């Protein structure tokens, strides 16, 4: 009895369809992961920009508040302690 070895060219149509389906699914999975990664990256960048803006606004508000407190302290007469 002679054994015949199958070469990739002699693959049955079912094997070829299986490889096509698997390759297609891999492409879909990689494409989906790429899209999800880009969306999350975009969201992260947006949140970082918002955080930076909020930090800047917070610093500006603190500066204004500090200045108004100092202005109020300077404009009020000082009271003598112990009287």
Quick tags:
83 residues, rod-shaped, single chain, mainly alpha
Task: Tell me what the structure shows.
By secondary structure, the chain is mainly alpha-helical. The chain has a domain at 16-73. Helix content is 76%, strand content 0%. The chain is built from one helix and no strands. The protein has one helix at 13-75. The protein is rod-shaped. It starts with 12 loop residues before the first helix and ends in an 8-residue tail after the last helix. 0% of the residues are buried. The model has no long low-confidence stretch (mean pLDDT 86).
The total beta strand count reads 0
Structural class given helices, strands, pairing? mainly alpha
- Beta-strand portion reads under 5%
Q: Which regions contain 5 or more consecutive residues with pLDDT less than 50?
A: none
Order of helices and strands: H
The biggest beta sheet is recorded as: none
Distance between the termini: 122 Å
What's a concise summary of this model?
By secondary structure, the chain is mainly α. Helix content is 76%, strand content 0%.
Task: Produce the secondary structure layout.
Layout: H1 13-75
């Amino acid at each position: 009895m002679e054994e015949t070895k199958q070469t990739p060219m002699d693959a049955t149509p079912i094997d070829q369809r299986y490889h096509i389906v698997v390759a297609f699914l891999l492409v879909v999975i990689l494409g989906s992961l790429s899209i999800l990664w880009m969306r999350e990256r975009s969201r992260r960048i947006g949140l970082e920009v918002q955080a930076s803006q909020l930090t800047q606004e917070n610093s500006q508000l603190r500066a204004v508040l500090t200045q108004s407190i100092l202005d109020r302290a300077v404009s009020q007469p000082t009271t003598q302690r112990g009287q």
